[in-house]
Amino acid sequence: MPALVIVGAQWGDEGKGKASDQLGTEVDYVVKFNGGNNAGHTVVVDGEKFALHLLPAGILTPGCTPVIGNGVVVDLEVLFSEIADLESRGIDTSKLRISSNAHIIPSYNRRMDAVNERLLGKRKIGTTGRGIGPTYADKMNRIGLRIQDLFDPSILRQKVEGVLAQKNLLLNEEEKFSVAEITEELLAYAPRVRPLVMNTTVELNQALDAGKTVVFEAGQAVMLDIDHGTYPFVTSSSCTAAGACTGSGVGPRRIDKVIGVAKAYLTRVGEGPFPTELLGEEGDWLREQGGEYGVTTGRPRRCGWYDSVVARYATMVNSLTDIVLTKLDVLSGLEKIPVCVAYEIDGKRVAEMPDSQSDMHHAKPIYEYFPGWQEDISQCCTFAELPATAQSYVQALEELSACHISSIGVGPGREQTIVRTPLLDK
Ligand code: GDP
Ligand code: IMO
Ligand code: MG
To answer: Catalytic site residue 41?
Structure first.
């Protein structure tokens, strides 16, 4: 089973980091293929918590080669501080490799992110403020800076001159950037970046030829995808399974499995439509039970019930072969659990994701109710050990999501996972 893609099946923070880490020592490569340090992936190993932003979760697996693919945007300061933090905690990061085609997030794009949000005012996206949008915009506009530019100071300077001529037009006098300052700042990283750089496209394709196991770990999720999410309230990259191909240089025929990670309920950070959002006490209860505060920005996450319209859409857009359901333990203690089965839009029942964004803003959830359970399930190791009502809830989600649920998370720890069907053939 050589190539698996892990994607978010909702609005992010589903537990992709844990799912990726879970695959364990049989994995040879873990590739981050989109986004940057807007992601926050949590992995808990023997009670110790790691919050990864730019680095893929595979970095915690001994022997695994972590790769930052061409589709990623890299903040160099964050890269080296994350490496230093992991090294200080005894994690060997020496195998990390970075594509020379990955784009750099220069400091001016963090400022541009803030400026864009300020100018949008009430219509702001609620970004993570990490410079993600402006850096992808520069990439598409062909004025981006790539990792390989660090090794040619004269080209780098010319590119910085060109891009700052545009950026500075939008900034107040005291906010403007100088070419020398930016060029020097970036060149200072060059000696440390050079040993990490590799033609990752060739490396990954050769690894697959040799029968190695490669996991592609997405940041964000289908509903935040630039093409398939709730535009404009999305991130700026391709977070779906197709993004694994463009963001790494591996063709679609090489992908064997696509695993969607979904919470047993739903959360969202930032602005934008969220039909099953709970604004009152129920939402507060879910937030506290589930510890729903952002890993990257610390913002409280918006909480709501499982939305099977979103899940079916995730299954379709990503060709999901499996769902990894997470945080089932959080729902213990409820009498009944609502699940959104369809939307009501302008008086009509709609079971598919609406094409029109304005319909999505008006969508009201239609719920079916499933009996809850009172037991603490965090120590359950098999499906049969779960209370009967929890089993029925999982089976209902499976049917409504149009995809097999392969494993069920009952706690944040590596071992707190009920495996129904192994994702990797042994
Ligand atoms: P990611 O961005 O998709 O990797 O997810 P985050 O790390 O942002 O958020 C998921 C949170 O849920 C983290 O705090 C995880 O440690 C935690 N988590 C993952 N799976 C489970 C689970 O099955 N049960 C519980 N209680 N927590 C989980
Ligand atoms: P992981 O990988 C949840 C959201 C932001 C904002 C929008 C755009 O941990 O699941 P950006 O800074 O990317 O331009 O922000 O996307 N967002 C996330 N929400 N999880 C994430 O990553 C996110 N990355 C970005 O809150 O609404
Ligand atoms: Mg996260």
So the answer is: yes
Residues 220, 204, 148: CA angle, nearest 5 degrees = 80
End-to-end CA distance of the chain: 9
158-190 burial, b if ≥16 CB within 10 A, otherwise e? ebbeebbeebbeeeeeeeebebeebbebbeebb
Q: What is the distance between the alpha carbons of residues 417 and 327, in angstroms, rounded to a whole number?
A: 10
The residue nearest atom 20 of ligand 2, judged by CA position, is 12
| CA gap 178, 180 in Å, rounded | 5
E strand map for 218-330 = 257-263, 266-268, 302-304, 306-307, 322-326
Inter-residue contact 298 to 44 (CB < 8 Å): no
Ligand 1 mutation pick, 18, 49, 297, 414, max ligand atoms within 8 A of CB: 18
Ligand 2 and 38: CB distance under 6 A = yes
pLDDT tens-digit readout, 226-263: 999 999 999 999 999 999 999 999 999 999 999 999 99
pTM, full prediction:
0.97
